[in-house]
Amino acid sequence: MYFSSLFTVALSILSFAAALPLHRLNHSPALFWHVSDFNTGCSPGGCTYDFNITGIASKNTPGFKTHCSGTSVQDDLVFCDDKHVKAKVAPRLYPAWTVQVQHAWLQGEAEFYAGGTANVTSTMKNFTIPVTEVYGVA
Ligand SMILES: *[C@@H]1O[C@H](CO)[C@@H](O)[C@H](O)[C@H]1NC(C)=O
Ligand SMILES: *[C@@H]1O[C@H](CO)[C@@H](O)[C@H](O)[C@H]1NC(C)=O
Ligand SMILES: *[C@@H]1O[C@H](CO)[C@@H](O)[C@H](O)[C@H]1NC(C)=O
Predict the structure, then answer these.
(1) What pTM value is reported for the model?
(2) Residues in CB range of 17: below 8 A, 6 or more apart
């Protein structure tokens, strides 16, 4: 799948950042993604999560709006409904969770990648994720 390989390329390139023309981009003013309807549920077999997420378009980043769901037993980020977006929600000491989101897109020939993480609790339905990394792979 095309966007799956885009993520693979972006992520594998990140591990060789020193050797490749990978550019960390400025994104001011500070960029935030908005999460709503954050839900978690746990059973002895593990936890599930789902949420909606919106990214407002900015100068260097396209907007998106999608729904993400998955389980806490997944080891890696999994695709949201919009395959440009991936998420992972990991349980920490109850009721804390770490929510990690990545967004990948193409602009002309260049591939871009943005990521952010937030620490939240299960009672938080809406929260923001600060985008702390934006990379372009030329
Ligand atoms: C959460 O976000 C949704 C969608 O943006 C909004 O409709 C809802 O009013 C918000 N709820 C709270 C408690 O802020
Ligand atoms: C979350 O997304 C679903 C499907 O796109 C939508 O039906 C629902 O109203 C959204 N919820 C909020 C709080 O935005
Ligand atoms: C979330 O919490 C963990 C453990 O306390 C910490 O290492 C991490 O830096 C926190 N992340 C954010 C984005 O606050």
Answers:
(1) 0.82
(2) none
Instruction: Tell me 123's DSSP state.
Output: T
Q: How many Å lie between the centroid of ligand 2 and the Cα of residue 66?
A: 9
50 three-class SS:
strand
Q: Please indicate, yes or no, if residue 49 is contained in any of the structural domains.
A: yes
Look-up of token digits 């799956």: 4
Ligand nearest the Cα of residue 39 is: 2
Ligand 1: centre distance to CA 52 (Å):
11
**How many domains does the structure of the chain reveal?**
1
Rg (CA), the chain: 15
Query: Residues 29-87: pLDDT tens digits?
Result: 678 999 999 999 998 888 999 999 999 998 778 999 999 999 988 889 999 999 999 99
Domain hosting residue 86, numbered range: 29-137
Å from CA of 50 to ligand 2 middle:
11
Q: What is the mean pLDDT of the chain?
A: 84
